[in-house]
Design goal:
465 residues, alpha/beta, Metallo-beta-lactamase, Chain A, Oxidized Rhodanese, domain 1, 3 domains, six-stranded mixed β-sheet, 16 helices, 22% strand, globular
């Protein structure tokens, strides 16, 4: 028996490959299914099952393409009602895979159809459990994503999650390996550990949610401090439940090289967004006007989802040459399938045409100007980061809320300086402000990490703004 975790850092997501004898199962695959098919062919096995732990909100699963290309059966737990053919397993049902068995454990709470899969080895001993978004390392799945307005509240779902954990998972042996659906950085939880694999006994000791004395305290703890879910989550659930266009078609359409003239023509339509995925240090020096910069080398997909929101949005790409396919792939993972093409030759081909720039200054210049007189500092980090330490007088305007605050007057008294922790998020903010006609500001290179090393005064207490 072989178990392999296939972890994708950008999404903080774990897919799993299980092999026994001449059969394999894939749990929660990503959108692009080629690697799973290649692995099965290399091992000389047939993919028998595609096991889905629930209808995912933060990414589009590859279950449909994988089942079609491999002949595998898609499996969900009880209460799942997909709009395509799938096996809806019963609670406690055993699925045979080669010389091992996988037991279906219905664990509602994160969603009503949430299901864990308990793997037993060749000797019938419980070996590992694939917990999806029911149990994370250090946390549990948030119970606010599947609320049904008049019939089910966040507290109701949290109560169901408590029962699921207590009845289905806590009684299992301590040496069972826990393979979660996500790790630190995912918006599906709030307190995940940086590790991606652990044993159940250690989680019983360390996981705050598993240590609650009763249901009431559990509900209070897991519902406290939840940030609003990103707007694209509901759209991804719909795609996972109803079906979607084949990834092959999405990639083929998006990989259309556009001349600067063709690109400009499409860019001049109101419905199209220009997404520039180059690093911040390149983007600031020159870009196609109205471009939004979300660097590929960062938390690319989550920020695209959080800020662009609508998965049906038409997108034109400006990438470093050679990164177009990776960009389209990562967009498709969160359901953004409507890429119309990319600027052939990258930004360097945009010669002789109008460009825009961002006024980026060094921390040394920021320090000098800060001490020289009154100015306004906008900190686009999360409130939790800002509350630990921030520049004196800085106003906290988190990037994920930019659609709310960018419409307000940010001019303040004196020049405006924008920063995040290291420059990735502040350049995203700068590009959005520029695209919306706001140009009178400076972005601070290196962000707060660099500013904190200077003599700029700091405050520790979070002040209302």
């Amino acid at each position: 028996m072989t178990v392999e975790q296939i972890y994708t850092g950008c999404l903080a997501q774990g897919a799993y490959y299980i092999r026994s004898g001449n059969e394999a199962a894939i749990i929660d695959p990503l959108r692009e299914v080629g690697p799973y098919l290649e692995r099965a062919e290399r091992d000389g096995v047939k993919i028998k099952y595609v096991l889905e732990t629930h209808f995912h909100a933060d990414f589009v699963s590859g279950h449909l393409d994988l089942a079609k290309k491999s002949g595998a059966e898609i499996v969900y737990g009880p209460e799942a009602r997909p709009d395509f053919e799938a096996h809806i397993a019963k609670d406690g049902e055993f699925l045979k895979l080669g010389d091992v068995q996988i037991k279906v454990l219905h664990t509602p709470g994160h969603t009503m159809e949430s299901t864990c899969y308990l793997l037993s080895d060749e000797n019938g001993k419980d070996h590992s459990i694939f917990t999806g978004d029911t149990l994370f390392l250090g946390d549990v799945g948030r119970p606010d994503l599947a609320q049904k307005a008049a019939t089910m509240t966040m507290e109701d779902l949290a109560g169901l999650l408590y029962e699921s954990l207590q009845k289905k998972i806590m009684p299992l042996a301590n040496d069972i390996i826990v393979y979660p659906g996500h790790g630190a950085g995912s918006a599906c939880g709030k307190n995940m550990m940086k590790e991606t694999v652990d044993n159940l006994g250690r989680q019983k000791e360390l996981n705050y949610a598993l240590r609650q004395a009763d249901k009431e305290s559990f509900i209070k703890e897991v519902t406290n401090g939840l940030l609003p879910p990103p707007g694209y989550f509901g759209m991804n659930v719909a795609l996972n439940k109803a079906g979607y266009e084949s990834f092959d078609q999405v990639l083929s359409r998006g990989m259309k090289a556009l001349s600067p003239e063709a690109f400009e023509l499409l860019a001049n339509t109101d419905e199209t967004i220009i997404l520039d995925t180059r690093p911040a240090e390149d983007f600031c020096k020159g870009f196609v006007p109205r471009s939004v910069n979300i660097g590929l080398k960062g938390d690319f997909a989550p920020w695209v989802g959080a800020l662009l929101v609508d998965v049906k949005q038409s997108i034109l790409l400006v990438c470093k040459p050679g990164e177009e396919e990776e960009t389209i792939t990562r967009l498709s993972r969160i359901g953004f399938d409507h890429v119309l093409g990319y600027l052939e030759g990258g930004f360097e081909s945009w010669t002789g045409k109008e460009i825009d720039t961002v006024q980026r200054i060094s921390t040394a210049e920021f320090e000098a100007r800060f001490h020289a007189g009154e100015c306004q500092v906008i900190d686009v980090r999360r409130e939790s980061e800002y509350s630990v330490l921030h520049v004196e007088t800085a106003i906290n305007q988190p990037l994920n809320e930019i659609n709310d605050w960018s419409g307000k007057d940010i001019s303040g008294n004196g020049p405006v300086f924008i920063h995040c922790a290291g420059g990735y998020r502040s350049m995203i903010a700068a590009s959005i402000l520029k695209a919306r006609g706001i140009h009178d500001f400076f972005e601070v290179e290196g962000g707060f990490n660099a500013i904190a090393k200077t003599a700029v005064p700091m405050e520790k207490e979070l002040k209302s703004v």
